[in-house]
Specification:
The chain is an alpha/beta fold. Helices cover 30% and strands 20% of the residues. Helix 2 crosses helix 9.
């Protein structure tokens, strides 16, 4: 869900401050949170992203945030909500962090502190087995569903003849696809792949876009899944990034992902332009990655 950098005017001083803010020092005490001693997490409940079971966060995103909470000796307070409310809950400081298989965009980086990536992805078309669409052109003239608040919606609206339907939840969109009320769904790749793998009777498939179209960078470019935090709490952002860095260094993210069906290199090896360098990261910042063991 990357965005083009139509204008880059980073100031050296600003980038230096960002570099300091996103470093990963050791913490003498837990960073401040919305509720003392608690780590309040907004999430949608869509798996394999984040769920809550037996007092702990589960799912790919959830396990990572649970490790952050454990490292900081904080108890998790779950805040289940629809996707459309997650970003607003961070901005209003009702929660400490949001998880929702959210893709990085420059626009979101302006309103929230976005974590380092926890995995990568390519967007694509969820469809019935009877079709095998892989290109943007295949969606022209079709009834297409997606989720309210997704960053690539303006790009979808540019496709010729697309009849776009917006849904509050992935479940609702998937039901309409199965029922034939829409022809295709552009959803969160991890969410739809996880659902399809566990429900073969649905007779659905997911195909990543084969296009590499600079006019549609959010739909066809390299996506980074990140967490969103409030900009006025850099200590908490550093703590989250410190734990993410440990998981990349030890290739633990691949082991967590295997539990939820995320096994291909596309999730862990960045291939494509690094849009964040010079935007919400220093100009020389490199994307982390972890290749499969030989």
């Amino acid at each position: 869900m990357n965005e083009p950098l139509s204008s880059r005017r980073p100031l050296a001083a600003a980038l230096a401050a960002l570099a300091l803010a996103w470093a990963a020092p050791a913490f003498a005490q837990a960073p401040s949170t919305v509720e003392k001693g608690r780590f309040t997490v907004a999430f949608t409940g869509d798996m394999p992203g984040t769920g809550f079971q037996d007092g702990r966060l589960i799912g790919y995103d959830g396990e990572i945030l649970q490790r952050v909470a454990d490292a900081l000796q904080l108890k998790v307070t779950p805040a289940l909500m629809e996707w459309s409310g997650t970003i607003a809950s961070v901005q209003s400081r009702r929660v400490d962090v949001m998880a929702g298989t959210m893709g990085w965009t420059e626009q979101r980086a302006k309103i929230m502190a976005l974590s380092d990536p926890i995995h990568y992805f390519k967007n694509g078309i969820t469809q019935k087995d009877a079709t095998n669409w892989t290109r943007l052109k295949d969606l022209e003239g079709k009834k297409v569903g997606t989720i309210t608040g997704f960053s690539f919606i303006p790009e979808l609206r540019k496709l010729n003849g697309v009849q776009l339907s917006l849904y509050d939840t992935s479940d609702a969109a998937m039901r309409d696809l199965i029922a034939g009320r829409i022809d295709a769904l552009i959803g969160d790749p991890p969410v739809v792949q996880y659902a399809i793998s566990r429900n073969p009777a649905w007779k659905l498939r997911f195909n990543a876009f084969t296009d590499q179209n600079p006019d549609f960078p959010l739909l066809t470019g390299l996506g980074q899944v990140v967490f969103g935090l409030h900009k006025d709490n850099p200590e908490l952002a550093r703590a989250v990034n410190a734990e993410i860095a440990k998981l990349w260094q030890g290739c633990e993210l691949r082991r967590i992902g295997k539990t939820y069906g995320l096994v291909q290199d596309v999730w862990y090896v960045p291939v494509g332009q690094n849009f964040r360098a010079g935007v919400d990261r220093p100009a020389d910042w490199k994307l982390p990655g972890c290749k499969a063991p030989a």
